[in-house]
Amino acid sequence: MNFSKVLTGWYIENIRDLPWRKTDNPYLIWLSEIMLQQTRVAQGMPYFLSFTANFPTVFDLAAANEEQVLKLWQGLGYYSRARNLHKTAQYVANELSGKFPDNYNDLLKLKGVGEYTAAAIASFSYNEAVPVVDGNVFRVLSRYLDVETEIASASAKKEFAALAFELMPKDNPALFNQAIMEFGALQCVPKSPNCSVCIFNTSCAALQKKKVNQLPVKSKKLKVRNRYFNYLVVADDNENTIIQKRTAKGIWHNLYEFPLIETEKVEGFDCIADLIKSEFFSGNEIVSILESNPESIIHKLSHQHLYIKFWKVKVNGIIEKGINAETLKTLPFPIVIHNFMKKDFLN
């Protein structure tokens, strides 16, 4: 069986109508690939459309300020992607006259562009014969060829890239790369794929050996850290509040939040009220403290689970450097805080 011919035939019949598939513009392809890292297409699509509407060229993105970029990115997660995206746009616009490098090796030199993204741009924009290896490709090849290499191991990417390169038709690598990723996304899915209708069900080694659900081989998940956040949502006589910018390295860098008390475990009213009274708002008398959500909101990140409570704190007088609701709407916040404000605070 000619694997690439069968695969690309399937792709032509099953291709999804996605905007980044209709262009070889490296700016648009770069934007889509950065956005789709760790992100489902359905989630990433509105962000791609919003970014391209607001920043139709790399010069437009470069000219924006970081808060504009983070605000449009709000809710997509992994915010370092947005910060690197902005810095790379500035580099391409200002140092490269708006022209992206036209080959894999030079694309790798861009900030935030790893092997996968460099290969995607090189292949889809310039038709360079370089394999694009993502989770879909790992899955398809490991099953079709019965490869038991642990996909997070140091050697895995090089091994699977070599396998993909061997199967790839060198006269049309872009079509092959798109096809194998699409096949993994739509047909050779992680859980319970419908192998009875698969175009490779007579040649797939994993299917013949009844190993489909065992491949690809993945290491155990990283240990998740639990953290306990208590946000103080202050309101003064003018209904202004207080926010702060997360400038330290770590989650949500350069996004805004309310004043934060982080505790070792979920704490009740008495503990948090005592901390608020002893450590905050010395210039304003506290009128009331209300626990907005008695049950913690659990916000799951890749390596941390955040248990979040919001505490509404009413104070007398006018707070220094207070922020009004209209200003809040323009600033980038973590999505869990944005959702709280939208539901309970900005009404």
Description:
The chain is 43% helix and 12% strand. It has 347 residues and is α+β, with helices and mostly antiparallel strands. It has 2 domains: 3-214, Orthogonal Bundle (Endonuclease III, domain 1); 225-345, Nucleoside Triphosphate Pyrophosphohydrolase (Alpha-Beta Complex), CATH 3.90.79.10. Strands 1, 4, 5, 6 and 7 form a 5-stranded mixed beta sheet that branches. The chain has a two-stranded antiparallel sheet with strand order 2-3. Helix 1 (3-14) crosses helix 11 (173-186) and helix 2 crosses helix 3 (41-54). The protein is elongated, with a radius of gyration of 24 Å. The mean pLDDT is 95.
Helix fraction bin: 40-55%
User: What is the CATH architecture descriptor of the largest domain?
Assistant: Orthogonal Bundle
| SS class | alpha+beta
Largest sheet: 5 strands, mixed
Distance between the termini: 62 Å
CATH class of the largest domain: Mainly Alpha
Task: Give me the CATH superfamily of the largest domain.
Answer: Hypothetical protein, domain 2
Topology order in helix (H) and strand (E) letters: HHHHHHHHHHHHEEEEHEEEHH
* Count of domain modules: 2
The count of helical stretches stands at 15
| Overall number of strands | 7
Coarse morphology: elongated
Query: Whole-number average pLDDT?
Result: 95
List low-confidence stretches: none
Radius of gyration: 24 Å
CATH third-level topology of the largest domain? Endonuclease III, domain 1
Strand content: 5-15%
